What does this fold into?
Amino acid sequence: MTEADDIAKLLAAGSLDAEIEALVGPCCPVGIDARPMPSEETISPRMLRRARKMKAISAMKREALADVMPTLPEPGYSYHIVSNGAFDYWSWIPVMAGYMGHVAEFYGSTWTLNRLNAAELLGLIDAGTVATASVITGLYFRRREPAVYSLLHTGMAERGMRCVGIENHAKVALLGNAETDTWIVVEGSANWTANPRIEQNVVSNDRELFEFHRGWMEEAIGRTCAGRAAPLF
It folds into this structure.
């Protein structure tokens, strides 16, 4: 089969996946450099092939993570994990959300992230798996990857969620559900990108720790949306 045949087969498979569709809309209007995205993006067949390949790789990474931790941590317990690149930090979010079934509130903090993971978060919201979400990114990501930042920022705003870019380098994810008394905290060294390196994570089911991180995240988001500059301390 030639490359042209391969491209034609991919194009005949259907429309682009939701995670690579362009999204537009406002979020925090004050203190945010929200750059508008085009209403449509031209995706070449080669880019389409890569997106689908990345989706398959993402699924394999989740399987690898599920082998390491097949269930949620018990309340009050923490697990310390060192990975060898078999899965990424982001892999924890869909895997833990799948174990929980429903995430009433999600908070995430990262320095940078890639398009596929940004789109997957929006997909989790659309599917009802995540009810509310708030995300803090770094200024580097907002300036270096404006198209991906706009995908996340405007996509979150369209769904009534919050996203801000500030002087941030913390990597924390919170997945909470008060009805089931589940308070998952994922702390780690990596960003929400592909990381074929040794990375560490601490995964806890601890309400006090959850509230600790939620506190500073709410303050950071509140200050930014009110037009006051971070840092906090």
About this structure: The first strand starts at residue 78 and ends at 83. Residues 45-68 form the longest helix (24 residues). The helical segments are 3-12, 45-68, 92-100, 115-126, 139-144, 146-158, 207-225. Residues 6-44, 46-50 have pLDDT under 50 and may be disordered.
